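Okay, is this right?
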Amino acid sequence: MLSWWLPEDVSTFGPSVDSLFYLIYYITGFTFLLVATVLVIFLILYRHRDGRRAVYTHGNSTLEIIWTIIPALILVMLGFMSKGKWDLIKRNAPPADVLVRVTAKQFNWEILYPGPDGKFDTPDDVQIDNDLHVPVHKVVRVLLHSRDVIHSFFVPALRLKQDALPGDREIIVWFEATKPGEYEIPCAELCGFGHSGMKGTLIVHEPASYDAWLKEKWPQVAATTAATEPEKG
């Protein structure tokens, strides 16, 4: 396998994306080598030789049909093979454990957490620019928006990439991270002069670390919970 040159995979659906990538990679790699080999053979066979005249041809219908049908069949095969994978990633999202709203703008990610009430646009919301905090082994649902132009929310380690569109369009993506750590969130769509600096960070926490982060952001909830807990005697 060629996993050494890809970013580390920390997503539950990452292996499915990688397997499809490798299949396409090997097909295109084989095709490249085949065409390059034929090209070299033709260069040798039909190189210039004194006294030999050029022979003109008007094409070969059989060959044209063959090299049209074969790529078409490969594309159809890839379509059928990938449908289940893309349905899982794009259409059949599992129930969410964590919900966040990510709004792209030139040139940063506005990440809104709904707070303990689980609702957006209420007083307990907390917005943090560019840092997305999530717990490990939990399903995270992201509601994508854009304030200005088209951006692309890209997390290579999750094998996740989705455009964020301006206007009222909300696009839903999800992921489940399998390993704690910090992972880059670049914008993958040219969005202006500051595009290269539009980077965020996905911070995947262990359960205890995530609970500590929640208590830091919503201390009033932590205090209320502590006050209502029975004393241990």
The longest helix spans residues 14-45. The mean pLDDT is 89. The longest strand covers residues 98-105. The radius of gyration is 26 Å.
